[in-house]
Each structure stands twice: as structure tokens, then as C-alpha cells.
Amino acid sequence: MHFRRSSVEIKTQREIELMREVGRLAGETLSAVGDIIRPGITTDEINEFVHADTLRKGAEPAPLNYLGFPKSVCTSVNEIVCHGIPGPQKLLAGDIINVDVTHLYKGYHGDTSATFYVGTPSAEARKVTEVSRKSLELGIAQVAPGARLGDIGAAIQEFAEGQNCSVVRDFVGHGIGRKFHDEPKVSHYGKAGTGLRLKEGMTFTIEPMINVGHWEVKVLEDEWTAVTLDGTLSAQFEHTVLVTGDGAEILTARPGKLKNSEIFDDY
Ligand code: MF3
Ligand code: CO
Ligand code: CO
């Protein structure tokens, strides 16, 4: 047996500065999305807003034409797990929607998403949304030099399954930088003490997709839209993070509370 040096990039100080810039811009656009969510808005209108806001910042929407994706943002409503394509669908009171924003700026990517409440959520919608929000927070709390990738997945899986939810396995977080999707793959379930050892200067996303029912998903005919196989609700939050000397820096952090999402103190 032989071992290969890990192919995970360590960013230079200059690259870290650029990742901070693009991360901040992506976080700002996601914040602005929170202000426009309301019953009656279409996912196409959200797409147009994100497209215009991204260009206004001097950035490009990375999803547009990425591997043939037709729009500038992913909008995933209710049982859609991820990669929902914006269209004429009007949001209804009681829906939940994940909006996943990725900016490309000065050659670097910033990737962040949140689930928003449209009007007042059902108990189930609130639960899966708050469990996914907390899952991301617990995953990020594991990030430090010397920690292992499996520590992140284990923390998320233990919490989410303990809340009687399930963790999607078919989609993972990812290294990010000049490439939108790079090594390593960041699984949201797994075993503590296993997998790649994290090093200062790595940048990757954590983006747990949490389902009310079973973790299995299927991809629709459009070859993008992933839905829960059992039709139950799914929610997701995503940040781009940097491994620092003693923990994590959230590159896509937002200055204030996210409207239509960060509205409960507990659940
Ligand atoms: N932003 C998604 C992620 O978190 C990827 C979307 S790929 C696209 O990795 F083509 F659908 F935009
Ligand atoms: Co991502
Ligand atoms: Co994303």
C-alpha cells in the first residue's frame, strides 16, 4: 500500500484575502435575498434579483452555465433537496426555500446558502430548518488544524439523527477557491477520528442537507433538481470556511440577522 500526498490546496495569504472578499460579497447577496422573500414572489424573480445584485458588486454568478446549469442561483422549495432551477413557481405562505448563492470575483469563489420561511412555517418546516441551521453550526465548530474531516460529518449526523431527521449522503461540501468544486469532499455524515486531517489555509464548504424523512434522494428529468425520495421536507444551510491557526473563519459570514430565516430563538 502506498499513500499519496493530499491534493488539497493550502491558500496563500493573498488568496485568503481574495476568498474573504468574495465570501463577504456572497454573504451580502444572500442577506439581500432575505429582504425580498414573500408569498407570491416567483423563483425566477429571486434569480433575477441575485443575478443583478451579483453584477452590481462586480462579481459573476458562478452557477450560470456551470456544467449547463441554466440560471444564476439555485432555489430549492420544500421537498427539493438542492439544485432547484428557478422558474415561474410562486412561493406560498408555509413554504420553505433554500437559496444557494455562489459568486466568482477576481478569480475566486464564495458559496453560501440559507433556508428561508415564506410566511409562518408549520412545526415540521420549522424543525427541519432549525435542525439544518444547527447542523451547519456544529459542523463548523469541529473545524481546526489537526481535526479530521470525519469529525465534521460525525457531529452533524449525531445531532440531526438525534432529532429524528436524516442526513443526505449523495451531495457533499467541497474544497473551493479558483475552482467552484475542488478537493476535499466534505461528507455530512461519518465517523469521528477518520478522514483527511485539516490544515491551516484550507478553504471548503460545509452544507448539510437535512430531511424530515429518509435520506434518499432522486434527481428529476431536468437532470438537476434533487428531491427527497419520500417527498418529505428538506432544508440546508451553507458557509465557505477557512481553517485558521486555531479554528475556523466563516468567510461568508453576515453582519446582521437574516430576514425570513433567523426569526426564532429556539425551536
Ligand atoms: N452552490 C452549489 C453548491 O453548494 C452548487 C450549485 S451547482 C449549480 O455546491 F450548477 F447548480 F449551480
Ligand atoms: Co457548495
Ligand atoms: Co452552494
Task: Summarize the structure in words.
With 267 residues, the chain is of the alpha+beta class. It is built from four helices and 15 strands. Strands 1, 2, 4 and 5 form a four-stranded antiparallel β-sheet that branches. A three-stranded antiparallel β-sheet has the order 3-12-11, with no helix packed on it. A hairpin with a 2-residue loop joins strand 4 (96-105) and strand 5. Helix 1 (13-36) packs across helix 2 and helix 3 (123-141) runs antiparallel to helix 4. The radius of gyration is 17 Å and the shape is globular. It starts with 12 loop residues before the first helix and ends in a 17-residue tail after the last strand. One cobalt (II) ion binds at residues 100, 102, 111, 113, 207, 238.
